[in-house]
Amino acid sequence: LSLHDALPIYMGNVDPSVKELKDMLQAKSSGDPEKDNDEHREIYLNLTQIYEHAKRFDEAIESVQQAEKLSKAKDQKEFVYYLWGGVYERAKKVDEAEKLFRKALELNPDSSMTLNYLGYMLADNGVRLEEAVKLIGKALELDPQNGAYMDSLGWAYFKQKRYDLAEQYLGRAAQLQAKDATIKTHLADLYFNTNRTREAMKKWEEALAEWKNTLPGDSDPVDVAEVQKKLEAARVRLAREGK
Known about the structure:
Layout: H1 3-11, H2 14-25, H3 33-53, H4 57-69, H5 74-90, H6 94-107, H7 112-124, H8 129-142, H9 147-159, H10 163-176, H11 181-193, H12 197-212, H13 221-242
């Protein structure tokens, strides 16, 4: 079982997992400096993702900085900047995240995952929406069947109030990733803004149910509270419409 394959297990058991990984860093050298370098880099990358998942962002940044020091190849550095940007994005440090995503794109302008993440972040924050659409559109050209990218593009169109296009992409994303709570919330927002209150309520309820079945850290309490607030507003609207 590789470290990458074991990552979901580690994420569900943070402190013991961190100790185990740090013990591996202190293990006896194999005698092959290049092999040790690669193994230590992978450990720091895993630590970064565990800390990020646990929202221990300062420790995640310390780990990804160590991984950067051990990254020699271009593709290794690209992934580090992508991961580092993701830590900052989850920590709500959007400017710092954008700088790192752009560093990753300098190394690989055709990285679909970086194009999508940067575009989605811009759209989600309601800034530079035309650029967001272009970035995500390029990611989707590179990976046409990716449901997450379709959701991102649909969400960017929603932010632009281009609701027909938004529904086209969000609907396809929901077909491909039927249990994705975030996609459900995006569809719900679209339905609510186009006066389909009952459909919006159904999707918000489905999203809340999906979040209940996730590991701690997979859902953001702020997002959950926001959806609950929107659901209550929809009930109020429905009651008024009934009157």
